[in-house]
Amino acid sequence: MYLNAVTRELDALEIPVGGILYSLYVGGGTPTLIPPEFYLSLFQVASDRFDLAGLAEATIETDGEVNGDQLAGYARAGFDRVSIGVKSFDPRIRDILGAGGLPELDPVASARSAGFSSVGVDLIYGIEGQSMEDFTGDLERTVNLEPDHISLYMLEESEIEPGIEEETGGPGEGGPDLAAAMFRESARVLGAAGYRQYEITNFARTGQESLHNTVYWEDGDFIGLGPSAHSSLTMDGTRIRWRNRPDIDAYLKDPLSCREELSREEGTDRARDALILGLRMTKGMHRPSFARRYGFDPMEFLKPHLAELTELGLIKYSAERVRLTTRGMLLSNEVFVRVLDDG
Predict the structure, then answer these.
(1) Which long-range contacts does 303-307 make (Cβ < 8 Å, 24+ apart)?
(2) Is pTM, for the whole model, over 0.85?
């Protein structure tokens, strides 16, 4: 029934048959709650409508509670990359986060044995009650497992439901100074182990960067299917964004009834948003390329605040490129709100 709804939504987009599918990403929540047989059918639906010869990456997200035998089923379905939401290897920190136990001592090796050619690990830091020693232990444990990709997400109060700490004893946000120190320590530890930070929250071995997520940061087109999914398509220079409401019952009845348009962006609005996305990458934005694509030098959006941002040590720029400094990545929202400011 769910596959039928997804197929109906896809067909309603009227994408010409035979188009090249560059990447496929199944994530958000815990998609491994759905059995591998569903994804076998999903890949068949995709192959009937797209040319999969150019599929560079097929990723599925999972938590650390899925064992190797289960992962093998998803690899056989067609996925070649897995992102494992470990959160923490420390039982005490996992308890604070409300996570269950880890069934695999080495989830990375289990995923590789299951048939995945690329394995990522996701960790959370900046948790109330988490010390620097706790976090360093997670980093060292992760490095020793030798994943291809590592994502580090800071727990933020905005992600915690109001009252959850009082009512459930759920996780709280740690102090900002300690979180900043953890951010810097992660760059040191992972850099020494051969992982390159290519985006604010992401590190990878050479050639193992997330191709799918890079499409987002480089302002590419993407289509999201299913409840809560987001999409972005460019038509005649205008970027159209929409999302599906998170209503599974309504989606199953009529997937198109769940669609809500979010925005239509062109001109300066699109350029501003593209600059914010691009500045998340550690390489920053190549000014000539940006100007050719959007018709504006990115410095035009930073110029009203340039002296301040430079004095605060948040950005670096040259005739060719503008990027965030390490401090700028820590305080990226301070930069982004200024990009959105008309000056």
Answers:
(1) 303/343, 304/338, 304/341, 304/343, 305/338, 305/341, 305/343
(2) yes
Instruction: Please give the domain boundaries of the chain with CATH numbers for all domains.
Output: 2-208 (3.20.20.70), 219-265 (no CATH), 268-343 (1.10.10.920)
* Ramachandran category for residue 100: left, alpha or beta (phi over 0 → left; psi -120 to 50 → alpha): beta
Residue 152, exposed/middle/buried by CB under 10 A (0-12, 13-18, 19+)? buried
Per-residue pLDDT of the chain (343 residues; tens, 9 = 90+): 899 999 999 999 888 788 889 999 999 878 999 999 999 999 999 999 999 998 999 999 998 788 889 999 999 999 999 999 999 999 999 999 888 888 788 999 999 999 999 999 999 999 999 999 999 999 999 999 999 999 999 987 434 333 334 444 567 877 889 999 999 999 999 999 999 999 999 999 999 999 999 999 999 999 999 999 999 999 988 999 999 999 999 999 999 999 999 999 999 999 999 999 999 999 999 999 999 999 999 999 999 999 999 999 999 999 999 999 999 999 999 999 999 876 4
